[in-house]
Amino acid sequence: MKKLEYRCVNIVGEFKHLFKSDKGELNQKVEDSLNDLGRDGWELVAVEGTWFYLKREI
């Protein structure tokens, strides 16, 4: 049986200063963060508001 670990990340919270400015820049920062996590083996499984839930095999 696979063993998994999980991670909850509030990515958008790291970029609050961008909320009232350029949405394109905010979207790019979120995309870059998710791509970095993906390179580390994390798979996005759910999003709720500004929280991103990920899993990866141990």
Automatic annotation (TrEMBL):
InterPro entries: YjzH-like (IPR025234). This is DUF4177 domain-containing protein. It comes from Paenibacillus forsythiae. The lineage of its organism: Bacteria, Bacillati, Bacillota, Bacilli, Bacillales.
